[in-house]
Amino acid sequence: MAPMESHHHRSTTKKDKKGFKSRHATKGALKEQSKGKVNSLSFEFGSRKTPHQQIMNKFDRRNRAKQMRINKDHEHAKSTNVFAGKDGAPRIAAVVPLCSDTSAAAAVHSLNSSLDIDDDVPEVGWTRTNVDRFKQKVQYLVVKRDLLAALDACRIADFVIFVLSAHEEVDAEGELILKSVECQGISNTFTVVQGLDKVEPAKQRPSVISSLKSYITHWLPSTDRVYSLDNRQEGANLVRSLCTTTTKGVRWRDQRSYMFIEDITWPGGKSAISEDGTGEVVVTGVVRGLGLKADRLVQVGDWGEFQIEKIVAAPLESRKKTKDEEMAVDSTDDTLERPTEYQDDLAELAPEETLMDDVTNYATSVAPSERKGVLLDDHHYFSDEEEETAPKQKRRLPRGTSNYQAAWYLDDMSDSGSDLEDFDMDDGQDNQNQPAHPADGVEGMDLDGKAMTEGAPSEYPQSEMFMDPSPEDEAAQIEEYRKSRKTEADEDLEFPDEIELHPNVNARERLIRYRGLKSLKTSVWDTEEDRPYEPEEWQRLLEISDYKRTATKFMREAWAGGVKAGTRVSVHIRGVPLQFQESGPRSMAMFSLLRHEHKRTACNYSILLSSEHESPIKSKTELIVQCGARRIVINPLFSNAGNTPNNVHKFARYLHPGQSAIATFIGPLTWGNVPLLYFTRTTPTPDHPSPLRLIATGTSLPPSTNRIVAKRIILTGHPYKINKRVVTVRYMFFNDTDVKWFKSLPLWTKRGRSGFIKESLGTHGYFKATFDGKISPMDAVAVSLYKRVWPRSARAWRGEMEQ
């Protein structure tokens, strides 16, 4: 007998060790698990991961971190190199008081006293302080409590110091300055408080600091603390921050060369003046931003744009200069750069001789006297000669007559019978547009069997005879209708573009410049029809086919060449009017313009009206706009923003508070996106001493002479009689000639129906129209007309001479 096989059981006492489960898998484990496989969900055909997206080993990660650190050090050294060394440029700090009891000069004196520096500080102007402890120079711009002075100083400052009061709140003037400075573009900011040691009891001082910090962070969220000028330690800490902090910069400013004007001299005085009342002026300062080129035009404050004669080195001497030496021009010829033959000229428009000979002969395709219909899209309908194609004649035929039977009836058949209807001789005519259909039931009754009533569903008389009302009755009816329409428009603003024609006015002559569009966004706009009405200088404006590429080209061009930033120079400028010798002291700056930035074009600026503004702004209202280094006076056209296939944008008569639009005008070109400030003139008061008031902000957009701003008007009519989809409309026109002229335009109602004009009725402007559905008696029939409006030219703002 075979031995029995014993069954072996697994040991129940043996336990497998628990595997280590890390919270996060290592890169090596993930790499081993993937085994070179790619996740199908995230894989895209033709895509390839960059080296930074791939899994890097330890050596690659260290090398990448080292390279990033080196690049960051190079960027930091480049940004601070202009301030380094014995002859480095000073750090410009603008001191702006926001309260009526604060003083910018006292604030600068407190900062100097914290480092035991005793320098004279003017009430208004600038002072340069050598901070030996940090081996830096700080140039304080002492600003008075004025809007334009604060904007001019902060526009060129590396640091802005806002001075608050421990006893008074920031009033409306201070908030205007703070908001304007923040909107134009601001670099590093600091906040200080004066008079904190006079707050009693002393335990209230921390709460005052906390309250001021809460207020200033509402406008400047990056503010981390408020310094007390009464504490020497905090003052020294603020000066250390001024000397060691890397400047953040302003993008639009760093794309150009600029200079704070330390000194202005007129070498020839009043004797060296040319016949046009201009002379040479020398401005001295330190070049900042990009390199200063003699071939480019310069914008000097609010004086305007000028050409450079030459750029001369003007280094600071070790010894202190006397007053006579400071006013004298350097005798040694240390010319750094002179303009070449490619220097930009002051011409704002293209020469007239470059225009084509036939540009002024704007002959339209069809003379206005020969046209028989308004322009719809790009075609004049009903303008062909009647002899070439005879119009279709409607005949009076018995109801139910077919096309074959109609050929057997003569044209002189009487229409006095009661069983006749309109019949169109077009074989392809769609019966859907017929006034009545045989299947509609008995003629002369509506669905409810009610008789015809005015303003209610009705039918046309069998004889098609239309009686014009008497002039007295018609005038009374028009007045009553328009009075009711005005009340409705005031209540719900259904028709903001509606106009009313006088009964004695010929609409064809009154609206000769208007045209129709099937679609405002997609219909073709024939620009040849607008040539007779365009401004004289329109064909001479600068046209840019590819704005993005062209702007990049000229902005990159400014990076190469020119006098290096950090060099103190004297710039000789020619052609400056003598009247600017009498201008008062103010922190002025000189900005170098990029190529072509002085030429005029059709500028498009975005505008956002402040929600705090109490009333809407009408188009063509005078505004003062600050765009980068320039201030100009404009009368802009407001239009809707957005991109449309046909580049046609609706004109806006008003810009309401809180709304945004595009402001269009003819003005100087500006490359890139530059922040904008819009001001209006106001009468100075004790509470608001500034003559300007900030009402809106925006950004410069690409200019375009092809952007069409179309003004829309709406003519409305009253549905006098309604028969299903056929309506008799009145009060839109007042003679049959106007009805025939505007016959091609599409009709619409405020409740979404669309239709067209079929024929004129009588001689008082009544007409028959067909719609795509039954309309309500309370509806209003309307037609839209458009014309191109042209922007107005801007002029330069001349600062104190404007006030």
Mean pLDDT: 79
Report, as a whole number of angstroms, the end-to-end distance.
Answer: 130 Å
CATH class designation of the domain at 81-248: Alpha Beta
CATH fold-type name of the domain at 81-248: Rossmann fold
CATH architecture annotation of the domain at 81-248: 3-Layer(aba) Sandwich
Structural class: alpha+beta
The Cα radius of gyration reads 39 Å
Distinct helical segment count: 14
Task: Kindly report the oligomeric state of this protein.
Answer: single chain
Q: What share of residues is helical?
A: 10-25%
Q: Which percent range describes the beta-strand content?
A: 25-35%
Adjacency order of strands in the biggest sheet: 2-3-1-4-5-6
User: By CATH's scheme, which homologous superfamily of the domain at 81-248 applies?
Assistant: P-loop containing nucleotide triphosphate hydrolases
Unreliable runs: 357-367, 385-391, 408-465, 487-493
Q: What's the main sheet like?
A: 6 strands, mixed
Q: In one word, what is the shape?
A: globular
Number of β-strand runs: 35
